[in-house]
Amino acid sequence: MNEKLMVEVQGLSHWFGIGAMRRQVLQSIALQIAPGEVVLLSGPSGCGKTTLLTLIGALRTVQEGDVCVFGHQLRGSDRRLRQQLRCHIGMIIQGHNLLRCLTAEQNVQMGADLLPGLSYRARRDQARYWLRAVGLDDHLSKLPHDLSGGQKQRVAIARALAAQPQLLLADEPTAALDSVTGREVVELLQRLAREQSCAVLMVTHDPRIVDLADRLVQMEDGRLISSLG
Ligand SMILES: Nc1ncnc2c1ncn2[C@@H]1O[C@H](COP(=O)(O)OP(=O)(O)OP(=O)(O)O)[C@@H](O)[C@H]1O
């Protein structure tokens, strides 16, 4: 285990289903991500990208292989450790996952609520800062159903960033965004990676943001087939 790495995956395999329906979706994956590194993960639909992301994000039980996050082994880990680690992992998932009864500002403030020792006002200021950073300062008090798909995606991104994660896992974060906004958002993620030594692993099919990555990793049929630095 290398403690200087944010993520160290070795020999990771994963199966879904039981009995005759059991099917292997990840095959002996190896992946390392250093602090401040932005890694893009791409590959055909169904090849296992989201499964890999959720395993690294401590949202699934590791069946076989090593998954070390911030130097902690997830295989065989208890629920408390996974909960503690998740406080430092930002997730931007497909479908936004915003709370419908909360405004954009309140949704983002939930991210800042994970930071210890901040007053209500400081957490609110954090929420406003990140909403401004994703270009939504005019939409603070809107509920999710009054926002477009791209705006909801930006609120979800602001919420993840407001928690100042050490590791950010993003599943197609630019999918609902136009090319200018998509690039701006990824530039923001890149800046966060640099300034806060946060590691970023992003699933994307978006060729417009490839140049913003430190490394491109390609996946096919549950295997990593290439890694270009
Ligand atoms: N909970 C589950 N139960 C059973 N099979 C699943 C489950 N989740 C995913 N799978 C299957 O595992 C395989 C990998 O799915 P995964 O969502 O990781 O792929 P993906 O590369 O992220 O696809 P996409 O680009 O379409 O989001 C697919 O064949 C999928 O149908």
Automatic annotation (TrEMBL):
InterPro entries reported for this sequence: AAA+_ATPase (IPR003593), ABC_heterocyst_DevA (IPR014324), ABC_transporter-like_ATP-bd (IPR003439), ABC_transporter-like_CS (IPR017871), ABC_transpr_LolD-like (IPR015854), MacB-like_ATP-bd (IPR017911), P-loop_NTPase (IPR027417)
PROSITE patterns referenced in this protein's UniProt entry, alphabetically: ABC_TRANSPORTER_1, ABC_TRANSPORTER_2
Organism ancestry: Bacteria, Bacillati, Cyanobacteriota, Cyanophyceae, Synechococcales
EC number: 3.6.3.27, 3.6.3.30, 3.6.3.32
A Pfam family assignment: ABC_tran
Official protein name in the record: ABC transporter, ATP-binding component
UniProt keyword ATP-binding, yes or no: yes
Protein species of origin: Prochlorococcus marinus (strain MIT 9303)
Keyword vocabulary terms for this entry: ATP-binding, Hydrolase, Nucleotide-binding, Transport
GO MF annotations in UniProt: ATP binding; ATP hydrolysis activity; transmembrane transporter activity
Keyword NADP listed: no
Domain ABC transporter positions: 7-228
GO cellular component assignments: plasma membrane
